[in-house]
Amino acid sequence: MTGVRWEVREGVCRIVLDRPQVSNAVDLAAARGLAEAVEAAEATAVRAVLLTGEGARFCAGGDVQSFVAAAEPPMHLHQLATELEAALRRLSELPKPVVAAVQGAVAGAGLAFVLNADIVVAAHSTKFRMAYSGVGLTPDCGVSYLLPRAVGTQRALELALVGRTLTADEARDWGLVTQVVEDDALSAAAADIAAALANGSAAAFGQAKRLIRSSFSATREQSAADEARTIASAVTTDEAQELIRRFVNR
Predict the structure, then answer these.
(1) Helix (H) and strand (E) counts for the chain?
(2) Which InterPro entries is this protein grouped with (predicted)?
């Protein structure tokens, strides 16, 4: 049991964090299970990914109990942070859309799952908190890189230093969350989005997310050149040719 399970159905790879007894906190086995699930999502048959968490809370971050039980906590934490970040970065780099459905609580490294998804749907009662400083630890799994890019430096520092907890509506207003729905509508809303994306322009979606995500590490000139190359290549694909034909003949 890795604490992560996955299945592919109708073009959607559903990845489920499955350690509800510890609020889906991630240990080394779960990090490796996530890496295996992301590898499965790279298959050509997968056109979209839906990431969810079993139980009342989406993810409480790293499994503190596993840190305590480790023979050498520093080495264990370094390995866990490194392997989980690599799996999440690979998830964000998938050439297909990633939808996350979150509920209950998103804390610590749980924020990294949100930040590496492309579309985030949150249940109205969800709370978002960095939580690292509460146990004397520091951000990991790319949170310190991605969070200020999503919400701005001052807001990221407030979350890290003051320990502010965000409601789902605040998380949406700050740019962490795409959509907030009633708690009992979460599963259906996220599944509908993933299904619609799976039935859309997979190649175009993949390149669009790559262009947007890579723009942080490129100059405007480099980004513009990449855009031009990409759209010139896109117009030659069978998918684009068919969609363009439908557009001009409507």
Answers:
(1) 11, 9
(2) ClpP/crotonase-like_dom_sf, Enoyl-CoA_hyd/isom_CS, Enoyl-CoA_hydra/iso
